[in-house]
Each structure stands twice: as C-alpha cells, then as structure tokens.
Amino acid sequence: MSEEQPRRTQARTAERERRRSRQDRQQSLARIAPFILVAILALAGLGLIVYGNTATSGGVGPRLQVDRDQIDLGNRKFDAPVRAAFNVKNAGDNPLTLGVPKLVTAVEGC
Asked: How far are the Cα atoms of 25, 46, 79, 80, 108 from residue 75, in angstroms, in the given order?
C-alpha cells in the first residue's frame, strides 16, 4: 500500500500540472484573442476599401478613348500622303502619356 500512495500522489500532481498548463494556455489565448480579432477585422476593412475604390472608379489607370473607330478617306492612291483628324481623350483616372510617331504608315487593305 505504501507504494500505491506515492503513485497516486504523483498521478494527481501530474494531472494538476496538466490542468494548470491547459488553463494557462486558455488564459493566454483569451488575452490575445481580441487583438487577433481586431487585426483580422482591420485587414478585411482595408481589403474592402481597396476593392471598393477599384470597382467604383470606372477603371484603374489611364484609358484611351478615341471619338471614332474608322476614318473613310475614299479612293486614294496608295502611299500618297493624307490628313485625318480625330479626338483622343483620357477616360481613366490616371495621367495618360502618348508616345505617338510623327507619321503613320497605312498598310494596303486597311
């Protein structure tokens, strides 16, 4: 019987230690849980703000808009210089930079 008594005491002590360490983990998790929740909500809010700005702005970045799709010059001699005018505007939300060459070459059949 004397051997059983120390074993029971050791088992009880070990169980108390396990319970205490489990409680400590739960308490530490309970202390940091609000911070984790606030961080998650902040990231979700930031994501919604960024997504909302890109979805409602009508496009991200510069967007070229031309007033007509085609220019009909009639029957002309191929390789003869012609002039055509059209309006170009930026329909986007960022500055538009054009790197336009001075001359445009037409390909037969266009």
From this structure: 86, 58, 12, 11, 12
CB 59 within 8 A of CB 25: no
This prediction's pTM: 0.35
User: CA-CA distance, 92 to 62, in Å (whole number)?
Assistant: 4
* pLDDT tens per residue across span 28-84: 888 888 888 899 999 998 888 887 766 555 556 788 888 888 888 888 887 788 888
Cα–Cα distance measured from residue 85 to residue 69, given in angstroms and rounded to the nearest whole number:
12
